[in-house]
Known about the structure:
By secondary structure, chain A is mainly beta. Chain A contains no helices and eleven strands. In chain A, 35% of the residues are buried.
Amino acid sequence: xxxxxxxxxxxxxxxxxxxxxxxxxxxxxxxxxxxxxxxxxxxxxxxxxxxxxxxxxxxxxxxxxxxxxxxxxxxxxxxxxxxxxxxxxxxxxxxxxxxxxxxxxxxxxxxxxx
Amino acid sequence: xxxxxxxxxxxxxxxxxxxxxxxxxxxxxxxxxxxxxxxxxxxxxxxxxxxxxxxxxxxxxxxxxxxxxxxxxxxxxxxxxxxxxxxxxxxxxxxxxxxxxxxxxxxxxxxxx
Lengths: 114, 113
């Protein structure tokens, strides 16, 4: 079972470059989200989606774009990378039936912006 | 302000010993509380989920407790193993239209032989 798959695992970008972090899930989950994890802090929500064609901003959306053209895929785009975006990024998915639905996380993408 | 505070920040124990991790929250209105285990270099994996009416939930050697009145939760690990070395993250969701989820910074547990 693949679960939530993220690519790439590691990436180094130069300031000002753009890139896309890919996320795919094979569990037919309606809800997908992107988080960033920084040292000493809890995961913070960047963007989320409750279904194909529907996206919304989370806690820290600036500098990131998302789209949800299919149920399976939820890519995160960095428009013009900045050193402050150096972080570990996690994609997550779940059903959207209620608050107790288990959230499944991908393995993470380590991004360094120099 | 919705917050989740975990203590201790890090903990070192000997293999076979028990330990308890703490989580205090100010998230309101409370919906549910989850504990996750995150191995180094991996994504978080769910251990337990508790709603308002539940005050204890077990998953093998992991037992989570919840006191919704004092807004405190604990995760007790029994007979620790080397593979328990990981970060343990407390996550609290608030019922606010959708479901707002607040992550604690985690407790880093080191189990030594």
